[in-house]
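Consider the tokenized backbone below.
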């Protein structure tokens, strides 16, 4: 009986030793610390401009554009990163995109199933902001 108890305690000790302070596997690196290049942003913007939410924002159901809007909301920071002293107009354009994304999110357009309402206007504003940002970024990529 005592042997079983001793074995149980040893097994528990070994189990707990495996759950020490060290995490299994390597620590993730990269990601957030990397700077965005104009080329990378231009590539992202090209992808967004073929989306139907961009090409025909007034005809799309706002609910169907949720992923598109979410991704663009995450792009605002990348746009600001490219502004610097050479392209301060990108800050204004990033503000426009951010405002349009907020106009989509505010009234919960992700649940609106019919086009032709204030959510469609928000999608048009997003498309216009993306178009303007893309124009500046494409010029930046072309001219260096």
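A designed sequence for it:
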């Amino acid at each position: 009986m005592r042997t079983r108890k001793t074995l149980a305690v040893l097994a528990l000790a070994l189990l707990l030793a495996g759950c020490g302070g060290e995490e299994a596997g390597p620590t993730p690196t990269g990601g957030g610390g990397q700077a965005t290049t104009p080329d990378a942003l231009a590539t992202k913007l090209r992808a967004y401009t073929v989306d139907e939410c961009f090409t025909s924002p007034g005809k799309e159901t706002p609910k169907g554009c949720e992923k598109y809007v979410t991704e663009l909301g995450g792009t605002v920071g990348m746009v600001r990163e490219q502004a610097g002293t050479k392209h301060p107009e990108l800050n204004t354009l990033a503000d426009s995109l951010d405002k349009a994304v907020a106009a989509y999110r505010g009234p919960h357009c992700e649940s609106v199933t019919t086009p032709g309402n204030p959510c469609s206007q928000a999608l048009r504003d997003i498309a216009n902001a993306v178009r303007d940002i893309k124009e500046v970024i494409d010029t930046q990529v072309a001219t260096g």
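The chain has a mean pLDDT of 82.
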